[in-house]
Amino acid sequence: MTTVDDNPFNYQEFLVDALSRARSDEMDVGNLIETAERLSSKGNHDDIVKLYYIWILFHENHPNIHAIKFNYGVALYQSGNVPDAIKTLQDVMREDKNFYPAYINGGTYLEAAGQTESAVAIWQQLTAELSSVTKATIDFKLMALKQIARVHRANNKHEEAEAAILQALSIKEEQPEIVEQLVGIRQAQCHWPLFGDFSASSRKNYLNMIAPLTAATYVDDPLFHLANAHRYNRDRMGWPKEYFGPAQWPKPSDKLTRLKIGYVSSDFRDHAVGFSMTEVLELHNRENVEIFGYYCGSVKSTDKTQIRIKNAVDHWIDISELDDEAVCQKIIADGIHILIDLNGYSKDARTTVFAKKPAPIIVNWFGYPGTMGSPYHHYILADDTIIPAELEQYYSEKVVKLACYQPNDRKRTVSTRIPSRAEFGLPDDVTVFCCLNGLQKLNRPTFELWMRILKNVPDSVLWILSGTAKTNERLLAFAKDRGISPERIIFATPLANPDHVARYQLADLFLDNMPYGAHTTAADSLWMGVPIVTMTGKSFAARVCSSLLRAAGLEETICGTIAEYEAKAISLGNDKAKLAELKTLLKNNRDSCVLFDTTKLVRDLENAYKMMWNDYLTDNLPVPDLENLELYQDIATDMDYDLIGLLNFDDIFENYQNSVVKNDRYLMKTTKFRFSGTGKS
Question: Which comes out higher in pLDDT, residue 494 or 40?
Answer without folding.
Answer: 494
